[in-house]
Structure prediction request, 124 residues.
Amino acid sequence: MKRYKTKHGNLNSLIRMGDKSVRIKFVASSTGEGYFETDNLMLQKAIEEDADYGVKFFAESPQPNHVAEERDSEATVVDNVTTWQEARSYLRNAPYNVATKEMTSPKKIQEVAQRFNLKFKILE
Prediction:
């Protein structure tokens, strides 16, 4: 299950999945932020490739920080990456296929790498 959030409260958005559009509905909470959850991997991929991803809505961190710290000791170290631009390129390719819009800074690239249990020495 993956959770997405928006600061736009109740937001409806059309997401292209192949040759059809799927409406996703963010439901506002008492904080004013809206949330949408799905376990459909194809829909998750379509959401993360959408032009509004990273602008109107974002993936919520899949784990609390303390869990990420525990996993850090087991992370796979990627030695052949020497710049943050190379790290972004590495994560854009299979099997990760992360959208460029999700990796706009070294900090965000590091957060994405943590999701996949990867560690780039250049970003330490």
About this structure: DSSP finds four helices and seven strands in the chain. Helices lie at 41-49, 65-72, 84-92, 106-115. The longest helix spans residues 106-115.
